[in-house]
Amino acid sequence: MLYYLGNLLLLAILYIFCNQKGICEYSKPIKKTKKKRNNLIITYNIQKFPWSLKTFIAIKKLLNKHSIILLQECFDDTFSLLKSNFPSYYICRDRLKGVNLLGSGLAILSKFPIINYSSYTFKNMNLFTLDRLSQKGFLVCWVKINGQKVCVINTHLQSSDYTRYDVFALLQLEELLQYVKNIKDMCIIGGDFNIDITDIMMQVRKYKALKYNYPIEPTIYINFKTGDSISNYKEGYDKMTFDYFITKKCIVSNTISISNEYSDHNPVSGLLVME
Q1: Which residue from 20, 81, 87, 198 lies 20 to 30 Å from 205 (Cα-Cα)?
Q2: Fold classification of 2-274 (topology level)
């Protein structure tokens, strides 16, 4: 009885803290480079938990080729770790808030100046999964590119190990797209959507102003019987494209999935083109 009461109390507390505008950590570049900035953008679920022994060494060269970097599951315990590894970037990430044991794991790094930033927690969340321990939502940065304001959003939707997607992921997506609907400037959303691109396009046809920029190759392979996920094909694993960009008044051309064994996801890269 006490177990169930404890769970109900935890759920009530979590509900209270949902949908709050969050506080972000932000830093300017430690070291400025004089190189001409490209418009390459990358999104990558790096599966880097606080207890992980991973370092950025294996993927630093890849990430540094891009002017805008969107990271998910970047659960580092110190903000200084990002600054020391990427000293020439403006960096923004969520600070832990509420009663979550983990933050959102979202970080945005930009060679272009970040002029404003904020974060949001989703109203909708499946509280009966391990995702309830993290801060599910999206991180927003306004970036100035060649004199133009561009809204860059990084997100990580509700996960599902044994089905193609969790219905809560669709509810979270709707929250996010309603937010984007009110943005009049150029906007790009990237991240780990945990919904295959074929499923997501069927669900959000009503948002005609949005474009979908996705790689032909899958970004993750999942065994829905065991719940295991890997970055390269193996028999018994389904091909899924969870990582891509959704854009408004701009596109990400030449969008490709880059084979990499650092995480169970492959990173997705492309060229940001203003319309």
Answers
A1: 20
A2: Deoxyribonuclease I; Chain A (3.60.10)
